[in-house]
Design goal:
The structure holds two protein chains of two kinds. Chain A is 43% helix and 8% strand. Chain A is built from three helices and one strand. By secondary structure, chain B is α+β, with helices and mostly antiparallel strands. Chain B is 23% helix and 36% strand. In chain B, the strands form two sheets. Chain B has an eight-stranded antiparallel β-sheet with strand order 5-4-11-10-9-8-7-6. In chain B, strands 2-3 form a two-stranded antiparallel ribbon. Chain B is elongated and about 70 Å long. The chains are: A mainly alpha, B alpha+beta. At the A-B interface, helix 1, helix 2, helix 3 and strand 1 of A face helix 1, strand 1, helix 2, helix 3 and strand 2 of B.
């Protein structure tokens, strides 16, 4: 709901007269467009930096490795 | 996966509490990819072990490897993307391997971080956000990092040793393209070398200069072919750009950047871009 409201405001913001838009207004809109915490829950997972480190930690902590292989760059969402 | 199970509280709790999670980017592990040889060999070993166990194996999969390093289970991402299915897989592993619960073994940290760069380089963070929610890739915004070297900052500022309010210049095409090539929403294709600019221009106009601080307004537009999938589809990202750049006129270095798009469109949908400097 909150995301939907934010997006609605952002869509509305496109009606701003850009020829007159101030630095503060641009800065505010930049801030509004930033990823929200609820859109980056992926960051709430403790990811190992690579497979070999995961393997080492798995042995050390007696835990299994969860490996996800994918195309693109999941860390920036471009995947 | 990221917008689905990897944003699911139960999945996050299971991964943090019982597993050592890791993800690997296929490009890095390809023959020409930048991952170390030993990394590639380890991933290949897991793939082969899964194949030998007659389990599903491929480049877009999840794998579970025992603490001993032995293969345990795998699943294609099409199945793993269903939170319920992935939870069942994880819980099965926890039960079978008798894993004790605990805290994450790796410290949580933002996965999107600016690249290491030389001193005095300017790091720009770009956010692309769908505004109308069209398409399966529009659930969350996507990001890019762009670094401008000290020399590129001078070029961006028109290579001028003295500036006055009202002065205007066009930012060199190579430099504006370096930034604008990321001006598209979330798509399956992210190979920007395939992008083709049909039109693009960024212009800077000095708004004021006050001693060691100057501010220029940046305006412009872009029209760029960017295919949604890797096969060319003629889709076009286009829009107008406006914002500001703060700079030191003496050193010709940029201290702040704030840029946004207006009325940007792609494939029948609308999106917005925000660019900010990160020091």
């Amino acid at each position: 709901m909150r995301v939907a409201l934010t997006l609605a405001l952002l869509v509305g913001a496109t009606c701003i007269g850009l020829a007159e838009i101030s630095f503060d207004a641009v800065q505010q809109r930049v801030a509004e467009l930033q990823p929200k915490a609820e859109e980056k829950r992926f960051d709430e997972i403790g990811w190992a930096k690579d497979i070999r480190e995961a393997k080492r930690l798995a042995k050390e902590h007696n835990r299994p490795v969860f490996l996800f292989t994918h195309d693109g760059r999941m860390n920036i969402g471009r995947c | 996966m990221r917008a689905g199970p990897l944003s699911n509280k139960k999945v996050i709790d299971l991964l943090n509490g019982y597993f050592v999670p890791v993800y690997s980017v296929n490009e890095d592990y390809s023959r020409k990819g930048g991952a170390p040889k030993e990394e590639k060999e380890e991933r290949e070993r897991i793939f082969k072990a899964g194949y030998a166990a007659k389990k599903s194996v491929g480049s877009v999969h999840v794998y579970i490897v025992k603490p001993s390093g032995e293969f345990f289970d795998s699943m294609h991402v099409a199945e793993a993307a269903k939170p319920k299915t992935l939870i069942e897989m994880l819980e099965h592993a926890v039960s079978e391997l008798k894993v004790a619960p605990g805290k994450p073994v790796v410290k949580l940290q933002p996965q999107s971080q600016g690249p290491a760069c030389e001193a005095d380089a300017l790091t720009l963070h770009l956010t692309a956000r769908s505004l109308d929610g069209k398409g399966a890739w529009s659930e969350f915004p996507v990001e890019n990092w762009v670094v401008l070297s000290p020399v590129e900052q001078k070029e961006f500022l028109g290579n001028r040793t003295a500036v006055k309010a009202g002065e205007t210049w066009t930012i060199p095409a190579g430099l504006s393209e370096k930034l604008l090539t990321h001006f598209y929403p979330a798509t399956e294709n992210n190979d920007v070398t395939k992008n083709k600019f049909l039109d693009q221009k960024l212009t800077a106009t000095v708004v004021n200069v006050n001693g060691a601080r100057g501010r220029a307004r940046v305006t412009g537009n872009f029209r760029m072919e960017h295919s949604f999938y890797h096969k060319a589809d003629g889709k076009i990202a286009e829009g107008t750009v406006i914002g500001y750049v703060d700079f030191d006129p003496t050193s010709q270095q940029i201290s702040d950047v704030q840029l946004i798009t207006d009325k940007a469109t792609y494939g029948g949908g609308t999106f917005a871009i925000a660019v900010r400097a990160v020091r």
